[in-house]
Specification:
Two copies of one chain form a homodimer. Chain A is of the alpha+beta class. Chain A has helices at 7-21, 128-137, 183-200, 216-224, 242-255, and strands spanning 25-37, 41-53, 59-62, 71-73, 78-83, 88-94, 99-114, 123-125, 147-155, 158-165, 171-176, 205-211, 228-231. In chain A, 26% of the residues lie in helices and 39% in strands. The structure holds a DNA duplex.
Amino acid sequence: MRSHVEPDKDNSKNILKRALQRNELITVYCECEVNYEGRAYSKLERGERVIIIKPDKTLLVHKPTGRNPVNWMKEGASIKFDSNNDSLFINAESINPRERMIIKVSKVHLLHSCELSDAEEVSIMGSEADMARMIYEKPYLINPDFKPVSLEEQTKYGYIDVMGHDGEGTLIIIECKRDKAGLNAVQQLRRYVERIKTAKGTDKVIGYIAAPGMTKNSEQMLKDWGFKFAQVEPPMKNVIDKSRQKKLKDYFLNCKK
Amino acid sequence: MRSHVEPDKDNSKNILKRALQRNELITVYCECEVNYEGRAYSKLERGERVIIIKPDKTLLVHKPTGRNPVNWMKEGASIKFDSNNDSLFINAESINPRERMIIKVSKVHLLHSCELSDAEEVSIMGSEADMARMIYEKPYLINPDFKPVSLEEQTKYGYIDVMGHDGEGTLIIIECKRDKAGLNAVQQLRRYVERIKTAKGTDKVIGYIAAPGMTKNSEQMLKDWGFKFAQVEPPMKNVIDKSRQKKLKDYFLNCKK
DNA sequence: GGGGAGAGATGCCGC
DNA sequence: GCGGCATTTCTCCCC
């Protein structure tokens, strides 16, 4: 067999090199196999996938299903293209953590690249931090006597969502969860309460879980440790910033086909 | 202003509808804004992005940076396309959890769709489960006297990676972490040990963290609770399946430009 | 850069 | 479906 470079793969390689240099976002529909070596090993046999290379050198390999890439390299990977008789290679490496990916592309169905300009960042409402702020502003959601003092405080005893007291010398520590609280949430709370008790040399500390609900087991654990539960919904289900939310509501109504 | 349908957007809409019906994987390079309402609220102002719609009705909106989509709908979303004078709309809804996304596309740069056939699943080596199996097979990695009995056991006291005894009536519980163990790992271990102590009515239980390393704080916590640490690397850094790994090594060597 | 914790986490498995 | 938990988690933020 004569040694020669298949024009197709060679052409793809050159297009990709140019696109990478120009920091364009690249999409490749192709048949490929993928090997990854780094934080783990992985092997993906031949199949059809979409590969995306972003301007920041994030590399994604997407199967036809699922939200997450089946293989990926994080931002800042060193990406190189190569080709031989019948394959196009996409090689990506990064240090710290030391990892490496090799994509062997056997067929290129489509190759596209284009500059993307996007200055906007997404804004999200309804996070746990929003919940903590809401509780700080509306302490009666926990308890009529609750007087919040600090918010999202990073103490050396841990990151405490909301902390305060009951006006009669008992400290109150609140752990917020935007979803149903599980065992982990109670453990966190337990750790904070224990540390505060030790640090302040007192037993007058009450721990609260503030969440829309709790799992059965975690409720039991809560009782076992003498903590309390306050049913609180994440703020976007009510209103945290009326004007903003109104605007969003209107937007959704107007767009609704 | 005369009411009319811009051919471009209308055309895009029709192409998208057909592609969706055919279960093709769709890619749209476009200028768009995105609103999401469901588990939270989010708003993303106008900018250039890549939108992917997968055959399983996963919808991804990718910015030019980062590994994760800035907005998404999970598998099985109900997706509809619409257009008016100057915009193309991609609307996605799902029940359980009830959520909704509206993408207003102001410019379509590229629209592509194509069938993807991919029967292969990725295989991964070096997971925590692999680590647990390795320890089960090579108990001396923990302790010369360790006699493992159960592996990845889902008891009502929790999911215990490896459990066994020292041959002298003391139970040994091992929590594996493939990366550096943190406070959470120690808490997990603590929970398992406490539950086993209560269930068996004995104090003769030793807890181990098996991991490549531990954080300072978690090391302190480990000492405080009388647990122990065994330095163990995840198996892919050594060898779990020599033949398989050899093959992979060869592969990487051969591919290495 | 390490450490701790949230995330619209996702995905897997077991009950 | 819920629940507990790992993930090549990712990402942010603070020290």
